Amino acid sequence: MTVPLLSGTGMTKNYGVTPALRGVDVAIAPGEIVAVTGPSGCGKSTLLHCLAGIMPLDRGTVVYREQDIGLWSEAGRSRLRRTEFGVLFQFGQLVPELTAAENVALPLLLGGTGRRPARAAALSWLDRLGVADMADKQPGAMSGGQQQRCAVARAMITEPRVLFADEPTGALDQLSGEQVLAAIINTVRDHGTAVMLVTHEATVAAYADREIVLRDGAVDPTGLGVGVR
Questions:
Q1: Molecular function (GO) terms listed (predicted)?
Q2: Counting beta carbons within 10 angstroms of the beta carbon of residue 33, is it exposed (0 to 12), middle (13 to 18) or buried (19 or more)?
């Protein structure tokens, strides 16, 4: 049996007295795209944040490449998100004062790459995602779809092993959303990147290899492992 690239076991997270995750077990294989679906407030985003090491668990473990990242320091988990994890949020979260190229180059610059090679890599990724003409524009001068493509480029510039995408098309109209999602899927397939894709839309989940359904902070056994391709 293939050893999972990333797995969570017994993941439990509470916000005060309100349970967000109740003993969730998930695993993702190298290169696999897994959609996490379920109604609003069921714990989808919390699951993603815990797996990405953004948010600590109350109980349970998250294992990446056979290492329990819950035992790592915050600095270690932050470094992991700059190198082997990519994170993409619903609204992209580009830095408004920076150009598209500067935003995309940011992870490399934070990792110590020189400005010239970082910009060259950023321009290459913007070109792959069809927004090379936005390189020297700030986010305020772009459409929502263009901003999200730039955010995808930023998340992928380090060529992460895992991409966490939290409602990546939720703020876009249907056409822009489909275009951005196709760009994400094509890009990650080309690089063999595993993807944890949080969505409430069946059309988005249909792009995944497998679907996990959450309800009230737990995996719904009726939806576990259902192929959606």
A1: ATP binding; ATP hydrolysis activity; transmembrane transporter activity
A2: buried
Domain spans of the chain? 1-84+161-229, 94-159
Question: What tokens does 118 get?
Answer: 């970082």
The SS3 of residue 74 is: helix
Instruction: Tell me the pLDDT tens digit for each residue of 94-135.
Output: 999 999 999 999 999 988 999 999 999 999 999 988 899 999
Q: Report the CATH architecture of 1-84+161-229.
A: 3-Layer(aba) Sandwich (3.40)
How far does Cα 142 stand from its chain's mean position? 22
Q: How far is it, in rounded angstroms, from Cα 112 to Cα 118?
A: 9
pLDDT band at 225 (very low <50, low <70, confident <90, very high): very low
pLDDT tens-digit map of 6-22: 999 999 999 999 999 99
Distance CA 138, CA 142 (A): 7
| β-bridge mates for residue 197, sequence order | 35, 165
